[in-house]
Structures are given as structure tokens and as C-alpha cells.
Here is the input.
Amino acid sequence: MSMELLGKKTGMTQWFDEEGRAVPATVLCVEPAVVVGIKSAHDHGYTALQLGAGEVPERKLAKPVLGVFRKVGLSPRRHLFEVRLSEAGEYRVGQEVGVDVFSPGERVDVTGTSKGRGFAGTIKRWNFRSRPKSHGHKWFRRPGSAGMGLRKVVKGKRYPGHYGAESVTVRNLQVLAVDPQRRLVVVKGSVPGPRSGLVRIRKHDA
Amino acid sequence: MTGMDELIQSLEAQKLREFPEFRPGDVIRFYEKISEGARERLQPFEGVVLRLSGSGTRQMATVRKVVAGIGVERTVALHSPKIEKIEVVKRNKVRRSRPFWLRRVARIHKIE
Here is the structure.
């Protein structure tokens, strides 16, 4: 397991790599996190860091969550999450963890919630082929046959239904640049979700 | 929080390259770094700007010249690190933002 931080997808642009090629790039704005708690093998059965990210007014949090921050004397954070980390013991409560954990050239995995597409047909959802819109055709985007007369529909048959708005991880993205001042990470390729969508950025395990 | 687009713009601003301003219709010359194995050389390309597109580091220009009677158009990423230098050779006044009619002008290098 490796270090993971929360961030926001800022948008996409283009970046020039070492060889001068223009590559597609996504800019992510990392929320600086603070260590709220440390889980140890002795007390909890596993080692992890409990991190909080994003300032938030107290009234926005439930009392029990607020208590977690009160106990360690930290201002409340919007997101509270855990990162399994074998070297969790080396951190202190209250320590800040920011963009500088990422460095250019290294690989990261990015998890986000994909754009919701509502109730989608088989063409968008399962990449079925559509039929000609003219030349005497009657159905253009309908799913077609459900099976071969088994008096039932086979399990897993691909049908229209809800699509998108699910957790998607893109692995092994190359970090092109890190801007500690603006807390930005530029990553090669695309990342799931809309702009300003919340993403988790994790160092890629080899 | 700063607007999303502003953040990207400020990030791109660090990567912007300096070159003289020019407009469509102007004649420019740019020098592209070409690496042949270990050796690197500069290849110039001079021609009329037919189109400017994009903004920030993504700005591109379409440049046309006529070589041995054959029209050659190159679309060049102006802020690419492969572009060593850009010079304005001649400024022309055209009214269009995309003077494609220049393609039908035979003496394209001589226009005013």
C-alpha cells in the first residue's frame, strides 16, 4: 500500500514531454491532508494513517466526526479517510502531507467517480453497434434479441440501464509536473469524472 | 478557491515561450530543432501565416510556403520546446482572420 491523497480534477490541457512531444494532460489540485490518527498493528490490527483534507466549518460536520478532530486538537476537515501504510508509525498526529509526496516521472493511480450517464442504452453502455438509420430500417438503437429461446434471459445479458457515476480507477499515470505553490499535479492522460470532481491520487505500486 | 480555468492558465503561463507577435497574413520564419541520431540541427521554415488557433501553450499556427511550385503547409505548435526561435520576416495587412484565399495566390511570397 502506498501514500494516497485527495484532490480535485481541475481540467485538461496539453503538455510537452522531454522529447518535445505534446501529450494530453490532466491537472489535479491536491488538497493538503493532515494526519488525524495513526493505526498501529498493536492497537488496531493493521497499520494505517487516518487523514483529513479540506477545511470545513464546524457546523457542517456531524458531532461524532467533529469529536475525532476535537480529540487531537485539529480544525475540522471535510474529508476523513484512511491510507494503509506500513510505515505509518513514522508520522505524527498533526503532521501535514501535501503535494510534495508526488514527484515528476513517477507513476500514480487515480480513482474518481465517472460522469453519470443516467439510463443509457446498449450502444452507449456496452458499445453495441447501431443499425443504419435509412435504407428501410425500422430499429436503430434497440438491443435486438435476448437469446435463443431458453424461456429465460441469460444472466449477465447486456441490457440498457444505469451507466456512469461509478468508481473508476485509472492506473499507472505518469506524473508530468508538480507545482507545490498552487498544489497542482499534472498527470499524463485522462482521469474519470467531471471537472472539480473529487479524485484520490495514489502512488502506483510497482 | 480560484477558478479552475485560471489555475490551468497560471500553470501554462510558466511554460509560455517568448516570440514576437504576429498576425495571420504575416510572413514568419521559425527554426525547428531536428535531431538526427546524436546530432541536432535547426531547420528553418518560412512562409505566410494562414491561421492562428488555440490559446495558451496550445497555440498553433498554420504556415504556408511554395517549394518548387508545390504548396507546403505546416501546422506548428508555437510554444513547443522544439521550436528554437520565431522571427517575423514581413508584416502584411489582411482583413480576414484566416486568409485562405492566399492559397489561390500564385506569388504568395510577394504579397503585400
